[in-house]
Design brief:
The structure holds 2 protein chains of 2 kinds. By secondary structure, chain A is mostly helical. Chain A has 2 helices and no strands. Chain B has a 7-stranded mixed sheet. A 6-stranded mixed sheet of chain B has the order 2-17-16-20-18-19, covered by helices on one side. In chain B, helix 4 crosses helix 7. Chain B is globular, with a radius of gyration of 22 Å. In chain B, 50% of the residues are buried. The chains are: A mainly alpha, B alpha/beta.
Chain lengths: 58, 453
């Protein structure tokens, strides 16, 4: 029987959806392992680039 | 001249471009000289209360005592401030009368500069501190005067928002610019490459004794790494020197006039600057930020950024405009949160992604962007998105993963030595996972520098 193959791009696509949903769930409960960065300067100060960022997010 | 067209990249339609004119800022009452060179260990040459003249050495590099850093003004040393681990942070000088005379450097005519000895050029650059304006790749550190570089790249263009326009800065300084180029030819046995934009002024296009290359296309076509990659790619053992065209003018002035060049031109732009104040400014080196920004900022909470809006870092209150600061960008602090913002159609939010409506035609108008990161940290997902914005022949995902895994051999084979963190600023900008990609690359370069190639 021929196996269903989704390939690298397909894997990445599903991985992305999974992480998006997981990320939203984790953030909504305030248990994100990463420090939240919605607070602006305080959490941004250690980044290399401290200017502008694209609106795109997952 | 060989025109080179860059296709990959992105021009950010940020509002607040500086006008192409230079405004003079009155001389400051106190200035500060910063030790802002990573890896440099400073040894002081002055103490608090000492009188200094213009061009007097303030501190030297412990590893290379020939390399001095000089005072841009005559006056009295008011304070010597230290940072973490008691490393020198800055020296504050009150401008005024001083019994110490100004330092006079050797003066050359334009013709003499074409035949001056390499050792004489190096000696004057080191003793004036202007040698620190020349950087060495890989690692973008102050160049090593002991080596002869394979080539020197002069960056005569900028595509990041909003670095100073060389066409504006060079006006009236054409002689100094050409003198700087002539001096660079004395420092290498290879070529000196001047990289310019298609709209460069005739005085820049007609530069002599150097190879002129024209680059066009979206940002980061103005980055030096892109120029090196397309003109003379580096092998891991190669060393090339780089310098900004705007800094070259100061070097030319030093050799032509024999005086320490105490002023430079910086650009002031961004949506946080009042509309009539968006321009280029000629300021004394070390001028307090407050002197420059007084009455020129928009109301509300603003973030002042040293450098461009993509790769710049935030400045704190009480800082001064340092010698290597070429631009100041001001953006409003963005701390808003949007409920389910990731699901919104995105009409009023600028994005390069066409998942947002602004991705289709949003780049046709100018945007008042803020410092809002527009999202939260997520896991790194292998999507190949970064490669769309990276004109270098580099696989960004693999490179970032190699650095995070501390696999320096793999990172070198993937071409990290050819790059600089600023080249990844656009990748960090578009990253939907909001990864600090430039920071990762910087960490990788530091690790390789520490371990040795």
């Amino acid at each position: 029987m021929r196996r269903f193959r989704i390939g690298k791009r397909g894997t990445a696509f599903f991985e992305r959806i999974y992480l998006t949903l997981l990320g939203q769930f984790v953030d909504s409960h305030g248990k994100s392992a990463q420090p939240p960065n919605h607070k602006g300067l305080q959490c941004r100060v250690n980044r290399y680039c401290q200017g502008i960022y694209d609106a795109n997010t997952d | 001249m060989t025109p080179i067209q860059i296709k990959k990249g992105l021009d950010i339609p940020l509002a607040g471009a500086p006008r192409p004119e230079i405004v003079d800022i009155p001389a400051a009452k106190s200035v500060a000289v910063y030790q802002e060179f990573p890896g440099l260990k400073a040894k002081l040459r002055v103490a608090e209360g000492d009188q200094v003249g213009k061009g007097s050495p303030l501190f030297i590099d412990k590893k290379r005592p020939d390399l001095q850093f000089c005072s841009p003004v005559a006056g009295v040393v008011k304070a010597i401030e230290y940072g973490a681990r008691r490393a020198l942070y800055r020296i504050v000088i009150d401008v005024g009368q001083s019994e110490t005379p100004d330092v006079e450097f050797q003066r050359y005519s334009a013709d003499q500069l074409r035949g001056v000895e390499r050792s004489a050029v190096l000696s004057q650059l080191l003793s004036s501190g202007l040698f620190s304006l020349i950087r060495q790749r890989p690692f973008s550190r102050i160049a090593d005067p002991e080596i002869t570089p394979k080539a020197i790249f002069v960056n005569g263009m900028n595509t990041a928002p909003f670095l100073p326009d060389l066409n504006v800065v060079v006006q009236g300084q054409e002689r100094a610019f050409q003198a700087g180029l002539d001096l660079m030819t004395r420092l290498t046995e290879g070529d000196v490459h001047l990289c310019i934009a298609p709209d460069a002024a005739d005085s820049i296009k007609s530069a002599s004794n150097v190879k002129v290359h024209q680059f066009s296309g979206p940002h980061p076509s103005g980055n030096t790494s892109i120029h090196i990659h397309h003109i003379d790619p580096m092998e891991p053992t190669d060393q090339v020197w780089t310098i900004r065209g705007t800094d070259l003018i100061r070097i030319g002035q030093l050799f032509l006039d024999g005086n320490y060049p105490d002023k430079h031109v910086i650009s002031l732009g961004g949506p946080g600057v009042k509309e009539d104040a968006r321009a280029h400014y000629r300021v004394q080196i070390g001028t307090p930020l407050v002197d420059l920004l007084d009455g020129r900022m928009q109301d509300g909470e603003q973030r002042v950024i040293k450098g461009d809006a993509l790769a710049g870092v935030a400045m704190q209150e009480g800082e001064h405009v340092s010698a290597i600061c070429s631009a100041i960008t001001i953006l409003a602090e963005g701390r808003e949160q949007f409920f389910m913002g990731w699901m919104a159609p995105g009409i009023n939010k600028l994005s390069a992604s066409r998942a947002y409506l602004s991705g289709w035609n949003g780049h046709k108008r100018k945007w008042d962007l803020t410092t809002n990161i527009n999202g939260g940290y997520r896991a790194m997902v292998f999507t190949g998105l970064y490669d769309k914005y990276m004109p270098l022949n580099i696989l960004v995902d693999y490179l970032v993963r190699a650095v995070l895994a501390h696999d320096t051999d793999e990172a070198i084979s993937l071409g990290i030595l050819e790059t600089d963190p600023e080249d990844f600023a656009l990748c960090a900008y578009v990253c939907p996972s909001k990864m600090d990609i430039s920071g990762v690359i910087r960490q990788g370069l530091e690790e390789i520098e520490k371990e040795g190639i």
